[in-house]
Amino acid sequence: MLEWKSEKLFMDNNLSPTLSLFLAILVSLTIMLIIAWIALRITSRYKLLDIPGKKPHKRHAFPTPIAGGIALLATLFLSELMLGIFTNWEVRASFIAVIPIFIFGLWDDIKDIGVPTKLIGQLISAYILIRLGIYIRIFESPELLLPLDQNIRVYLDWLITVIWVVGITNSLNFVDSKDGLAVGLGGITASFFMLMTLDSGQFLLSQHSAVILGACIGLYFFNSPPALLFLGDSGSQTLGFLLAALAIAYDPQGASQLSSWFIPILLLGVPIFDVALVVISRLRRRHPVYVASLDHTYHLLLKLKLGSHRSVLIMQFASLALGCLAFIILHQSPVIANTVFIVIFILGALSLVYLDSREFWPASPQAGSETE
């Protein structure tokens, strides 16, 4: 493993872990406010703008800079370099691996490169992450008693990792269907990872989560409605990939894998629900899965006449509730934990069926939307 030296410019070794986390949030938030302001001007100058009406789902009122991805990656890099978080090899691996996704996402923001090309970037990032040692280890777990060869176990774990990373990366991209929604959900998820990694003794990962949280808070200032900037694919996919990698790196101490395997699924439950709803709905109607449309969870909540603001709040409250439940059941027995998860899964499935039943809906919503 390569050695990495990084000076903690803003960190005092005498600070308590809690104060260090608040400092990480504040540093990241401050840097984001500065970087986002600069990114806004750069993208406006070079015409990296999302034009209203360019596609049917683009209903924002005025050309909006696609500066979120640039601001997000720059803020996270500077914050973690200053705080010395890059001493953690899992954080370094995540940043190295996310670069292809960011590049392909920014390329798509500029040129609209299409789904197959973006998928190549996602697969490259997943491959790099695995090669750097960050991958799911379910089949290699001694708790899983299956008569499988060790090499087969490893390959199955790699396959699950690719599915997880690509799936979560796209789920954050899909859920980015309303100003502030993806950033808000990402911030909530990061806040729970901050607490859970602190509870598990993974302090640098907890600081890493705090930096993501601070960046999301700062980005929310610019991305909340009416948005001054959009995340674009470079922003939503970068955020999704980093959260997916953080979920893999998280190692709950003192908890059985049978009680903890679904914790990341709960923390990212709302984006997962949204992408499942969109994919199932479009496949059932024989529509292309990756063509942007007004059929996301947010849009369907609008059709239930809940209003734009409350529709966003419902999704964010659901994410908050799932995070609380995940924390509560983490150290329960496998029977209790899995029973709760199954109940949540059934409720989610019933909600999906209801939202996909179009006979209950009024006319199409008048919804603002970012890029998918």
Describe the structure.
It is globular and about 55 Å long. The protein has 14 helices and two strands, in the order αββααααααααααααα. Residues 1-7 and 362-372 have low confidence and may be disordered. The protein has helices at residues 17-45, 68-83, 89-111, 115-131, 150-175, 181-199, 203-223, 232-249, 257-260, 263-267, 269-284, 297-303, 308-329, 334-355, and strands at 49-50, 64-65. By secondary structure, the protein is mainly α. The chain has one domain (17-360). Helix 2 (68-83) runs parallel beside helix 8 and helix 5 (150-175) packs across helix 11. The protein has a two-stranded antiparallel sheet with strand order 1-2.
First and last CA, distance: 38 Å
Average predicted local confidence, pLDDT:
86
Strand order of the largest sheet: 1-2
The helix-strand sequence is HEEHHHHHHHHHHHHH
Oligomerization status of the protein chains? single chain
Characterize the main sheet: 2 strands, antiparallel
What would you call the structural class? mainly alpha
* Topology, number of strands: 2
Total tally of structural domains? 1
Radius of gyration: 20 Å
**Share of helical residues:** 55-70%
How much beta, percentage-wise? Answer: under 5%
Low-confidence stretches: 1-7, 362-372
Principal-axis shape: globular
Helical run tally: 14
